[in-house]
Amino acid sequence: MGRALELWTSSLPRLLEATIAVTIPLSLAAFALALVIAAAVALVRLYAPAPLRALASAYVWVFRGTPLVVQLFIVFFGLPNVGIVLPAFAAAVVTLALNTGAYASEAIRAAILSIPRGQFEAAQTLNLSRRDTFRRVVAPQGLRIALPPLANDFIDLVKGTSLVFAITLVDVFQVGRQIAATTFEPLVLYVEVAAIYLVIVSLLSLAQSQLEKRVSRHVRSS
């Protein structure tokens, strides 16, 4: 027990350093880009001409239907064969964003579709433009509906960053693997890495709960 506690304490600074330097920035950058992709894809699938809708649907189908680790390998190891070379961090951001964007686009699309048609008709009677209708009517209601699944997508993305070691990024999981390989204590190190992810996800879940309360503060309780 004493050996495990000593190893846990000595390895924690390196694991936290990797978390702050790689895992957290990677998660934030990828999710920010994923939200942009998701919103664009959702709007295309709802309002664009048929060829563009088909293209957006194909994107969602591909990225939801293939493993994330395979997508990472294609972007980082495969694209250089066609002249597209990305640094490991950029490749991870792009891949995670595209993967999460496919799932998040479905949440946004479903949220928009769930808004009653009468809301749009009421906006028309008030002579609101399409832009104002989206900004004042669709976006506030859609955000409240889409928030829980989007938060879940963000949590999945954070956990998905544990795969980026496969494309040479030294994230918290890779640091844990390196320490485990030198100390021959895989159980202690992997439990410690899992604890770090658990803390991050717990904080995100708490933030999600507070944000849901904030965006729902004007909703009347039944």
Automatic annotation (TrEMBL):
SUPFAM superfamilies: MetI-like. InterPro entries: AA_ABC_transptr_permease_3TM, ArtM/GltK/GlnP/TcyL/YhdX-like, MetI-like, MetI-like_sf. The keyword Transmembrane applies. PROSITE patterns: ABC_TM1. It is a multi-pass membrane protein. Signal peptide: none annotated. It is found in: Cell membrane. The chain crosses the membrane at residues 20-46, 58-78, 84-104, 187-207. One of its GO terms (biological process) is amino acid transport. One of its GO terms (molecular function) is transmembrane transporter activity. Keywords: Amino-acid transport, Cell membrane, Membrane, Transmembrane, Transmembrane helix, Transport. GO terms for cellular component: ATP-binding cassette (ABC) transporter complex. Residues 20-208 form the ABC transmembrane type-1 domain. It comes from the Bacteria. PANTHER family: L-CYSTINE TRANSPORT SYSTEM PERMEASE PROTEIN TCYL, MEMBRANE COMPONENT OF AMINO ACID ABC TRANSPORTER. Belongs to the binding-protein-dependent transport system permease family. This is Amino acid ABC transporter, permease protein. It comes from Brachybacterium nesterenkovii.
